[in-house]
Predict the structure.
Amino acid sequence: MSAYDLTPPHGPGDPAAGRPDGSAPVDFAVDVTAHEAHRRAHVLEAIGPDRDPVEVLRGEEAAYDLLTRRTTAGPPTT
């Protein structure tokens, strides 16, 4: 049998059937749980202990209000 012959070597129900090298597919999985926990720890360390998410959200909302007020009311008059 040549490498290009697609005749199943072991039968139609064999997982390796029709593969030129006769090997069956292999499941491949990577668990990134530990890496993600390590990454989050570094992010929180970089942000620092004095970060206030509520205050950040208030600032973002205030900035958005200023932005939408200017775009809906037109340019400021002087």
The mean pLDDT is 78. The CA atoms of residues 61 and 67 lie 10 Å apart. Helices lie at 33-47, 53-73. The radius of gyration is 30 Å.
